[in-house]
Amino acid sequence: MNVADRATAGFRQRYGAEPAGRWAAPGRVNLIGEHTDYNDGFVLPFALPLRTVVAAAPARDGHWTVWSELDDEPVDFGPADADEPGRVDGWAAYVAGVVWALRADGHDVPGARLAVASDVPVGSGLSSSAAIESAVLAALVDLGGLDLPTGRWPRLAQRAENDYVGAPTGIMDQSAVIRGRAGHALFLDCRTEEVEQIPFDLDGAGLAVLVIDSRAPHRHADGEYAARRKSCERAAATLGVTALRDVDVADLDAALARLDDDETRRRVRHVVTENQRVLDTVALLRAGRVRDTGPLLTASHASMRDDFEITVPEIDTAVEAALAAGAYGARMTGGGFGGCVLALVDAGSADAVAAAVTDAYARNGLTAPGTLTVLPAGGVTRLD
Ligand code: GAF
Fold first, then answer.
1. Which atom of ligand 1 approaches the CA of 161 most closely?
2. Which residue's CA is minimally distant from atom 1 of ligand 1?
3. One digit per residue, pLDDT tens: the chain, 384 residues?
4. Pairing of strands 112-118, 381-382
5. Quick one: how far is CA 3 from the chain centroid?
6. How many CA atoms lie within 13 A of 165 on its CB side?
7. Are 180 and 46 in contact (CB under 8 A)?
8. Consecutive H or E run containing 363
9. Which residues have a Cβ under 8 Å from the Cβ of 106 and sit 6 or more positions away?
10. Which residues lie below 8 Å from residue 303, measured CB to CB, with a gap of 6+?
11. Residues 16, 344: Cα–Cα separation, whole Å
12. Which segments within 81-199 are labelled E, that is strand?
């Protein structure tokens, strides 16, 4: 059964009624621009064909009841739980967080019954959390007839995650999931939230993006993410700038000379050079030179591995094996400490590269990776 039908079936079985509608939101990968979003910088993600679907209908009791195929038991919460961050936890916190963010923004959020099904794997760094937030947000906005232009959705969904769930993430994932467009990568300026849809015609170039799920358990990901963010903010304060976005790559050496420890210097070098790599990638894509972006992807990986120190051995193994098997470029995508790698490959050699990575994992005694080729898909939408 496809994901939309699973959401409907779950709704019928759980609530004995028909949903009023179904809303779908994708996962994402980030082509390039990692840990730049919370530094007011640039990112270039795209939405995936894997989606989370929410079937929903209004509930007169003013409560929110959510069932997910991940869990037998539905979670029920009312306004008092939604108004106090932390009262709802686990996967349902992303739902309660959206209710919280909408209410905090002054909206009269309708009670609702919701059923969630998803093809976005949880814990793989493909933004299953932004997908559920965005699908629930779309459902509640429609069910309540709320006056909330889509341009404001990413910030609201991010607030759900930052302030209700308590994860200090940037705005990239929600932007990709909400604003993604088929056949395009989303060039986002995270300071101004201005976007440009950059044609990313893999098919036309005879190329494919292979996504490799490292299956590495996330090790201390939350604490390390927060530590990287703090370190960037401290460095910006030392340098007297609002955010590391304000350090130009031409001024990098001078900026590094003003920092007194090597670790901070490496963190700053990653962010400043990564911003430039995003701009260079966009320039190449605008010129139709998709294949030539490969070296920038690989340079981004080296920077994450050596300077930002957010990769793990499984991830590095996947990148090295993909490159050795002929990928034009490969890098970890997402927050790090596990998750996925993406590799830019000839469409005809995607299977061979996937097999080479799987072999390398077996030789190193690692759990077999997941592999999938993807094309950029559209963002959140109402299905019916
Ligand atoms: C995670 C976060 F949610 C994003 O905001 C971003 O910082 C990313 O890690 C790293 O680029 O996905």
1. 3
2. 335
3. 999 999 999 999 999 999 999 999 999 999 999 999 999 999 999 999 999 999 999 999 999 999 999 998 999 999 999 999 999 999 999 999 999 999 999 999 999 999 999 999 999 999 999 999 999 999 999 999 999 999 999 999 999 999 999 999 999 999 999 999 999 999 999 999 999 999 999 999 999 999 999 999 877 788 999 999 999 999 999 999 999 999 999 999 999 999 999 999 999 999 999 999 999 999 999 999 999 999 999 999 999 999 999 999 999 999 999 999 999 999 999 999 999 999 999 999 999 999 999 999 999 999 999 999 999 999 999 999
4. unpaired
5. 20
6. 25
7. yes
8. helix 350-363
9. none
10. 269, 270, 273, 274, 277
11. 46
12. 112-118, 184-189, 195-199
Q: Of the listed 173, 280, 316, 384, which one is catalytic?
A: 173
Q: Using alpha carbons, select from 150, 244, 148, 239 the residue that is nearest to residue 190.
A: 244
CA 286 to chain centre: 23
Q: Which residue's CA is minimally distant from atom 8 of ligand 1?
A: 335
Q: Measuring from each residue's beta carbon to the nearest atom of ligand 1, which residues come in under 6 Å?
A: 30, 34-35, 37-38, 169-170, 172-173, 334-335
> Is-contact 160 206, C-beta < 8 A?
no
3-state secondary structure of 67: strand
Residue 25 and residue 177 in contact, taking contact as beta carbons nearer than 8 Å: yes
Among residues 27, 348, 379, 16, which one has the least CA distance to residue 186?
Answer: 379
For strand 64-68 and strand 112-118, is the pairing parallel, antiparallel, or unpaired? parallel
Distance CA 29, CA 41 (A): 17
What count of other Cβ atoms lies within 10 Å of the Cβ of residue 251? Answer: 12
